[in-house]
Amino acid sequence: MNAQVHERARPVLTSLVIVTLAAVPWIVAVLPLTFNGMQRVEESGGTGTGSVGLGITMLAFAALPLVASALVLTYGLTARMEVHRMVQIAAAALFFGGLVSFLFAVLLAMA
After folding, report:
1. What is the 3-state secondary structure (H, E, C) of 30-53?
2. Count of alpha carbons within 13 Å of 81, Cβ hemisphere only?
Protein backbone atom coordinates (compact mmCIF):
# COMPACT_ATOMS: atom_id res chain seq x y z
CA MET A 1 0.00 0.00 0.00
CA ASN A 2 2.74 2.44 0.98
CA ALA A 3 4.76 1.58 -2.13
CA GLN A 4 1.78 2.40 -4.35
CA VAL A 5 1.49 5.85 -2.78
CA HIS A 6 5.18 6.51 -3.38
CA GLU A 7 4.91 5.36 -7.00
CA ARG A 8 2.00 7.74 -7.59
CA ALA A 9 3.65 10.67 -5.81
CA ARG A 10 6.98 10.41 -7.66
CA PRO A 11 5.78 11.85 -11.03
CA VAL A 12 3.93 14.64 -9.25
CA LEU A 13 6.99 15.62 -7.22
CA THR A 14 9.22 15.37 -10.30
CA SER A 15 6.89 17.64 -12.24
CA LEU A 16 6.75 20.10 -9.35
CA VAL A 17 10.55 20.29 -9.16
CA ILE A 18 10.86 20.71 -12.94
CA VAL A 19 8.33 23.54 -13.04
CA THR A 20 9.87 25.27 -10.01
CA LEU A 21 13.35 25.19 -11.50
CA ALA A 22 12.03 26.32 -14.88
CA ALA A 23 10.37 29.34 -13.28
CA VAL A 24 13.57 30.72 -11.71
CA PRO A 25 14.54 33.09 -14.58
CA TRP A 26 10.99 34.41 -14.77
CA ILE A 27 10.79 34.92 -11.00
CA VAL A 28 14.01 36.96 -11.12
CA ALA A 29 12.77 39.10 -14.02
CA VAL A 30 9.09 39.61 -13.19
CA LEU A 31 9.42 42.16 -10.39
CA PRO A 32 11.70 44.67 -12.14
CA LEU A 33 9.76 44.38 -15.38
CA THR A 34 6.39 44.81 -13.70
CA PHE A 35 7.31 47.67 -11.41
CA ASN A 36 9.32 49.57 -14.01
CA GLY A 37 6.66 48.98 -16.66
CA MET A 38 3.92 50.30 -14.42
CA GLN A 39 6.08 53.28 -13.47
CA ARG A 40 6.76 54.13 -17.13
CA VAL A 41 3.07 53.98 -18.02
CA GLU A 42 2.06 56.00 -14.94
CA GLU A 43 4.71 58.69 -15.45
CA SER A 44 3.76 59.29 -19.05
CA GLY A 45 0.18 60.08 -18.11
CA GLY A 46 -1.52 61.32 -21.22
CA THR A 47 1.48 63.05 -22.75
CA GLY A 48 1.95 60.46 -25.47
CA THR A 49 5.66 60.07 -24.95
CA GLY A 50 7.57 56.95 -25.92
CA SER A 51 7.66 55.61 -22.40
CA VAL A 52 4.09 54.29 -22.68
CA GLY A 53 5.19 51.87 -25.36
CA LEU A 54 8.23 50.80 -23.38
CA GLY A 55 6.13 50.33 -20.25
CA ILE A 56 3.61 48.17 -22.09
CA THR A 57 6.46 46.18 -23.62
CA MET A 58 7.90 45.60 -20.15
CA LEU A 59 4.56 44.40 -18.86
CA ALA A 60 4.16 42.12 -21.88
CA PHE A 61 7.58 40.57 -21.29
CA ALA A 62 6.68 40.05 -17.63
CA ALA A 63 3.57 38.09 -18.65
CA LEU A 64 5.11 36.24 -21.62
CA PRO A 65 6.25 33.05 -19.82
CA LEU A 66 2.97 32.48 -18.02
CA VAL A 67 0.94 33.07 -21.16
CA ALA A 68 3.17 30.70 -23.15
CA SER A 69 2.95 27.92 -20.58
CA ALA A 70 -0.82 28.38 -20.20
CA LEU A 71 -1.22 28.08 -23.97
CA VAL A 72 0.84 24.88 -23.95
CA LEU A 73 -1.30 23.44 -21.15
CA THR A 74 -4.50 24.40 -22.96
CA TYR A 75 -3.32 22.84 -26.20
CA GLY A 76 -2.19 19.72 -24.35
CA LEU A 77 -5.57 19.32 -22.71
CA THR A 78 -7.45 19.75 -25.97
CA ALA A 79 -5.08 17.40 -27.83
CA ARG A 80 -5.35 14.85 -25.01
CA MET A 81 -1.62 14.57 -24.42
CA GLU A 82 -0.31 12.60 -21.48
CA VAL A 83 0.02 14.81 -18.44
CA HIS A 84 3.71 14.28 -17.73
CA ARG A 85 4.73 15.16 -21.29
CA MET A 86 2.45 18.20 -21.28
CA VAL A 87 3.97 19.47 -18.01
CA GLN A 88 7.48 19.03 -19.42
CA ILE A 89 6.66 21.06 -22.53
CA ALA A 90 4.93 23.75 -20.44
CA ALA A 91 7.99 23.90 -18.16
CA ALA A 92 10.22 24.32 -21.21
CA ALA A 93 8.00 27.15 -22.46
CA LEU A 94 8.12 28.72 -19.00
CA PHE A 95 11.91 28.41 -18.87
CA PHE A 96 12.62 29.85 -22.30
CA GLY A 97 10.02 32.59 -21.93
CA GLY A 98 11.49 33.44 -18.53
CA LEU A 99 14.95 33.47 -20.04
CA VAL A 100 13.83 35.94 -22.72
CA SER A 101 12.18 38.11 -20.05
CA PHE A 102 15.30 37.95 -17.90
CA LEU A 103 17.54 38.95 -20.80
CA PHE A 104 15.20 41.82 -21.66
CA ALA A 105 15.29 43.02 -18.03
CA VAL A 106 19.10 42.84 -18.03
CA LEU A 107 19.22 44.77 -21.31
CA LEU A 108 17.00 47.50 -19.88
CA ALA A 109 19.07 47.65 -16.70
CA MET A 110 22.22 48.26 -18.72
CA ALA A 111 20.65 50.99 -20.84
Report:
1. HHHHHHHHHHHHHHHCCCCCCHHH
2. 16
